[in-house]
Specification:
This protein is α/β, with parallel strands linked by helices. Helix content is about 25%, strand content about 25%. Strands 1, 2, 3, 4, 5, 9, 10, 11, 12, 13, 14 and 19 form a 12-stranded mixed β-sheet that branches. The protein has a 3-stranded mixed β-sheet with strand order 7-18-17, covered by helices on one side. A two-stranded antiparallel ribbon has the order 6-8. The two termini are about 15 Å apart. The relative contact order is 0.18.
Length: about 525
């Protein structure tokens, strides 16, 4: 991560755009019928959330546009259609789906187990490609001089982000950790398969024949791993192998003699249609709060936001319309695992497409705010040394902790205080309310360009955004199922963010927007946005 600088307070005066008046209700009606908080007894139980997560898991891995993905979206539509008052629609997109038809690897004539192909790899066909192996250690550039005509072996790096960054005055606004479980001098870390993107691009430019990415984790914990997910074809085939298989390859190279390998990534591009599902719950005013999560993912924890959205919609629809001053729109977005959803020049996936639409509607008073839900209740897994001298590490579930819930909130103190209050009330532990997840740049609007996940495009389009997201080490692999979710923690987070949406209904738009209003004016006057 780039070196982070301290946040400087904005000095631009706040100018509030005209907004349509919200429907008014009498104080007496509100007091009699509208809850001050979500009624926990009327919200989904842990058992209900488990049932939903198990149903989601039953669809299996859901790459964008796959049959499993389409079936999952259809199931979500059925769930939402069963809730009274919701209006359903879809935003379709035509894509070329990437399908893995088979992978294989031999090194020196001996078969080596492959955990997964790198998504969107160049296809070798069923026959594969053969070439000498070369191991290029981390920090060594892949060039024509060392890689042309060869299959490159590369070690996946691990990211390390200091915990202090999540506290004020750097990225942090507020930290809720009553158990003092976070080591201030420690760091959050996970393996970074996204590094394969740069490796495959460099290998293709260097004239390499293929790339083998070596994980520090064992085969059974990365089997089916899916990353990076750009949606654009790479110029070479690539595959992942586990720690034991990586040692097998490096041992073969250690003898100092040339080692021939054969790599097969048999893949096809298939035209198909994928869609974003919209479910709108009308309120007293058409100005909408958008609640969003994506539907394409490889494991239950990767995209369990839609499960919370089902139960949030069910709860909100049970309230009188007087208790919903604003409309709430639930957006089940596609293209998270196909970031270049509409072509090579725009990298935002379905979230970016929706964000651009909401950006255009915001100044017309049609949009209030966006709440993005990702990876709720993710259990913490610790990477520990493997037993009996086996190479690499293995992930072991922590018996008591969840992953840190990183919650960027756009530049509004009332909005951040609202989230802070509900996080503390529902005891959503290990939650960091943040200003952003990238270094502050006062020369751009917004000042923090990254919100860490699906919230990023909405933030970059200068919409008021709340976007909780965790970074579990189990994220990219379908080998981790419902057991990787702490259902009690997921329920608490679901209650907290349903309360947030409930309170966003009557909140003055000037308070919701905060400094976003001035930033939109600055953008209109020529201040650059995020690159």
């Amino acid at each position: 991560m780039r070196r982070l600088v301290a946040l400087l307070l904005l000095t631009t005066p706040l100018v509030v755009p005209a907004q349509p008046a919200l429907a008014q209700t009498t104080a007496q009606t509100t007091a009699q019928t509208c809850p001050v908080r979500v009624d926990s007894a009327a919200f989904a139980s842990e058992a209900r959330l488990r049932t939903l997560a198990e149903q989601q898991e039953a669809f299996g891995p859901r790459p964008t546009g796959s049959a499993a993905h389409a079936d999952y979206v259809d199931w979500l539509e059925d769930e939402m259609a069963a809730i009274p008052g919701l209006q359903l629609s879809s935003l379709p997109y035509d894509i070329d789906r990437w399908d893995n038809l088979g992978t294989g690897l031999t090194v020196g004539g001996t078969a080596v187990q492959v955990a997964a192909p790198v998504p969107f790899s160049s296809s070798t066909g069923a026959g594969g490609v053969s070439a000498p192996l070369v191991h290029l250690a981390a920090g060594t550039n892949i060039t024509a001089a060392n890689a042309a005509g060869k299959i490159v072996v590369r070690d996946l790096p691990w990211t390390n982000v200091p915990n202090l960054l999540f506290y004020p005055p750097t990225l942090g606004y507020s930290m809720y950790d009553p158990g003092l479980t976070i080591n201030l001098l420690g760091s959050e870390s996970m393996e970074a398969p996204a590094a394969a993107d740069a490796d495959l691009k460099a290998a293709a430019a260097a004239g390499a024949v293929g790339v083998i990415e070596v994980s520090q984790l064992p085969h059974n914990q990365i089997q089916g791993m899916y990353a990076p997910y750009e949606g654009l074809p790479y110029g070479v085939p690539g595959a992942y192998v586990g720690a034991d298989q990586g040692k097998q390859i490096k041992d073969a190279l250690a003898a100092g003699q040339p080692v021939q390998a054969s790599l097969t990534v048999n893949a096809a591009w298939t035209p198909t249609t994928t869609r974003t599902l919209l479910a709108t719950l009308p309120g007293g005013n058409a100005q909408k709060i958008v609640v969003e999560s994506h539907t394409d993912g490889m494991s239950p924890v990767w995209d369990n936001g839609p499960l919370t959205m089902i139960e949030m919609a069910r709860y909100l629809s049970s309230l009188p319309v007087e208790c919903r001053p604003r409309t709430v729109q639930f957006a089940f977005v596609t293209g998270h695992l196909y970031q270049h959803l509409t072509g090579p020049n725009v990298r935002e996936g379905g979230a970016g497409q929706l964000a651009a639409q909401l950006d255009a509607e915001y100044d017309q008073g049609k949009v209030s705010s966006v709440v993005v839900l990702e990876h709720l209740g993710a259990k913490r897994y610790d990477a520990v040394a493997r037993p009996n001298g086996l190479p690499g590490k293995q992930l072991v579930a922590n018996p008591t902790l969840t992953e840190l819930l990183l919650t960027p909130v756009s530049e509004s103190t009332p909005l951040r205080e609202l989230v802070k209050g509900h996080i503390q009330h529902w005891d959503v532990r290990r939650t960091a309310i943040l200003k952003g997840l990238s270094a502050a740049d006062l020369g751009t609007v917004p000042h923090h360009c990254s919100f860490g996940g699906e919230g990023t495009p909405y933030n970059q389009h200068l919409l008021p955004v709340i976007s909780p997201i965790a970074a579990p080490k189990t994220l990219f692999s379908p080998r981790f199922g419902v057991e990787a979710i702490d259902l009690q923690a997921m329920r608490k987070a679901s209650l907290a963010f349903t309360d947030v949406v409930l309170d966003l209904g009557p909140m003055a738009q000037s308070a919701v927007a905060g400094d976003v209003t001035a930033m939109r004016q600055q953008r209109a006057s020529g201040t650059p946005g995020c690159a």
